[in-house]
TrEMBL record:
Protein name: R-spondin-3
Subunit structure and binding partners: Interacts with the extracellular domain of FZD8 and LRP6. It however does not form a ternary complex with FZD8 and LRP6. Interacts with WNT1. Binds heparin. Interacts with LGR4, LGR5 and LGR6.
Compartment list: Secreted
InterPro entries, A to Z: Furin_repeat, Growth_fac_rcpt_cys_sf, R-spondin, Rspo_Fu-CRD_dom, TSP1_rpt, TSP1_rpt_sf, TSP1_spondin_dom
Major subcellular site: secreted
GO cellular component: extracellular region
Sample GO molecular function, one term: heparin binding
Domain of life: Eukaryota
Role summary: Activator of the canonical Wnt signaling pathway by acting as a ligand for LGR4-6 receptors, which acts as a key regulator of angiogenesis. Upon binding to LGR4-6 (LGR4, LGR5 or LGR6), LGR4-6 associate with phosphorylated LRP6 and frizzled receptors that are activated by extracellular Wnt receptors, triggering the canonical Wnt signaling pathway to increase expression of target genes. Also regulates the canonical Wnt/beta-catenin-dependent pathway and non-canonical Wnt signaling by acting as an inhibitor of ZNRF3, an important regulator of the Wnt signaling pathway.
Lineage: Eukaryota, Metazoa, Chordata, Craniata, Vertebrata
Region (Disordered): 174-243
Family: Belongs to the R-spondin family.
Keyword field: Disulfide bond, Glycoprotein, Heparin-binding, Repeat, Secreted, Sensory transduction, Signal, Wnt signaling pathway
Length: 243
């Protein structure tokens, strides 16, 4: 054993030095050199720090540095996150995105340009003026459409979502608010009243007829029956003039 190698290592080191720190790591850990001032010491970590990527070898697992413009990387030539001022595209960090793409300052990536999309126009509204559909000759009618895809920063902006045009309607008077309803209610009440009146009259008529009928029947019961007068022609016997 080298005289500078310690036997009681800490922090995941398999072998270590009092001056240089870890010299090798325990299985599955990554060895990386950290600079402290003018000095570099070895440390053993479960994963590589930001700006490094891990490589595994039969004898040792190491953390290697990413490119200077790369914050995190999968390999040295494939970046997964760029440093400030650079945009990620296909594993590379670029200061300017290629043609047909735009820089997304939120994700710091080069993304496809998205244009605005809208649905179809709605039917034209009724001709109106000051919120009313009567009491005027010239008014306006409108139609609308909705945005279904908002554009990206360099995408085509959205067109107008509302259109208006002049319109002409046949002039007519406006019914006062509640007047139409009031008239319908009055007609209904009057109709019900007339029906009730007819019903009462019919009931009175039936009652009067029934009362007259009962009166006649009562009079017939109380008056004595008249005897029929004898038939004089039948009572007179024929006179035999032959004797």
């Amino acid at each position: 054993v080298h005289p500078n190698v310690s036997q009681g290592c800490q922090g995941g080191c398999a072998t270590c030095s009092d001056y240089n720190g870890c010299l090798s790591c325990k299985p599955r850990l990554f060895f990386v050199l950290e600079r402290i001032g003018m000095k570099q010491i070895g440390v053993c970590l479960s994963s590589c720090p930001s700006g490094y990527y891990g490589t595994r070898y039969p004898d040792i697992n190491k953390c290697a540095k990413c490119k200077a413009d790369c914050d995190t990387c999968f390999t040295r030539n494939f970046c997964t996150k760029c440093k400030s001022g650079f945009y990620l595209y296909s594993g590379k960090c670029l200061e300017k995105c290629p043609d047909g793409l735009e820089a997304n300052n939120h994700t710091m990536e080069c993304t496809s340009i998205v244009h605005c999309e809208t649905n179809e126009w709605s039917p034209w509204s009724p001709c109106m003026k000051k919120g009313k559909t009567c009491g005027f000759k010239r008014g306006n009618e409108v139609r609308v459409r909705e945005i279904i895809q908002h554009p990206s920063a360099r995408g085509n902006p959205c067109p107008a979502t509302t259109e208006s045009r002049k319109c002409i309607v046949q002039r007519k008077r406006c019914q006062k608010e509640g007047k139409g309803k009031k008239n319908r209610e009055e007609k209904r009440k009057k109709s019900n009243k007339d029906e009730s009146k007819e019903t009462r009259q019919e009931s009175k008529g039936r009652a009067a007829r029934r009362q007259n009928r009962e009166q006649r029947e009562s009079n017939n019961k109380t008056q004595p029956k008249k005897r029929k007068a004898p038939n004089k022609e039948q009572d007179l016997a024929p006179v035999d003039t032959a004797h």
